[in-house]
Amino acid sequence: MNNQILIFNPKSANGKHRIPNSILQVGASIYGIYEFVFVDGNLENDPWEKIDSYFKTGNFKYFCSTVMPGPQLRQAIPFTKKIKEKYPDCITIWGGYFASNQYQVSISSGFVDYVINGPGDIAFPSLIGVLEDNNHTEISTIKNLIFKNEEGEIIKTAKEELLDQDSLPKLPYQHLNSFYNLENYLSKTFLGRNTFSYHSSLGCPFTCSFCAVVPIYKGRWKAKSAESVYKDVKYFKDTYRIEAIEFHDNNFFTSRKRVIEFSELIKNDGITWWGEGRIDTINKYSDTDLILMKEAGCKMIFLGAETGNDEILKQMNKGGTQTGETIKEFVKRLYPIGIIPELSFVLGMPAETPEKVMAQIEWDINFIKEIKEINPDAEIIIYLYSPVATEGSELYKQIQKAGFSFPKNLEDWLAPAWENFDLRKNPLTPWLTPKMVDRIMNFETVLNGYYPTATDFRIKGFKRSLLRGVSKIRYITGFYKYPYEIKLLHKIWKYRQPETQGFYSE
Predict the structure, then answer these.
(1) Is 28 inside any structural domain?
(2) Are 190 and 49 within one domain?
(3) Residues 109 and 193 in one domain
(4) With 80 as the cut, is the pLDDT of residue 319 above it?
């Protein structure tokens, strides 16, 4: 057969333990219908050699890749281009957050033929079917699709309603296992040995103007039932002896009923877990609910605090009822229960004047320190604001007015500055001066010295005490400039920052 499909997962980070749920979802939509193979850039010494060896057989017609911002672009862009140059009849298809949010530059590159804009459960097999039937007139009827028509116009079709997640085909774990031993994806983390990554829902019901999820899901959310999630978890526990789960949902805690049902099901299995949620959503849970979650293995919750400044929260269109006081109230509630709040903050939002930008930064630095006084166990993750503003929002207009723009050429995204932008390490924003960036990053260094992250389990005992001692005077006095001694210790001990590298794994 010369119409086989190669599904490629570009290398994402240093850690190799996360199972590639995105390509599994793609594979599930065509499993048993079309022939396909997986190539995982995280587990290949030379992924291009593996990809090329498949295409040299003459059996492959489609090159499909999930593309997230940041490190994945290092392989996704050059490999897709080489495929198109070496095998011009090959059809290239991209999906993922980068492809959907930067679809114009992707499609205009000349080597990305189609973009799946959001879930591909129907769109992907429908596209393959139409192409196999050579029925190009039907392409425009496929929802969640972006492509160029014969006139060279970029066409963005209507959005598909989110499907009932329990009705979707099961992820083809064993098909992936025929290419890569699934045990390669399970390793020790802060949560426990043999940590398993999983998606139990899609989307988010909120429409924060700074979030990359919003343009794709439009404030929609659909989830698997607690029973379905537990069945999958139980399968991996029984088969692969997992001890921990990372739930990489955009908003795992949207439904209290589902979370409580899941907690009841898993509470006797000895599995610890982590998930992402909103403070104002989970703050509505009772103390009894939170205690049950703790007893059921919930060890840490990632929470989008973003800022303690109510004015900036409005600018972000955060929605809901979150305020600075809500944040403080919730982290205080979690302290005696023993669930660690992992709070992300976004510093460096645009403002009318440089003075106001700096004042906002100082506000949040002091707020973060207040949070640590309330709950010393709280994990703090700091991001420099990197615009992914929702088109048409006030924030979008604001960043345009300030002179910010994305690259007009797809390959320009490979520049180190733009990769750092995607990792929220280099903002490339006109309103953030080097002095402001240094202030934020130096504070983060001192903070991570005085309160080393709990998620890097190598930094403990003597190391933790030494870091804290070296950082103490700086942290207490607010002198954050030139923290070279802390940076040196971080470098020697290979300190892992969860904001850019995830949980440390071995």
Answers:
(1) yes
(2) no
(3) no
(4) no
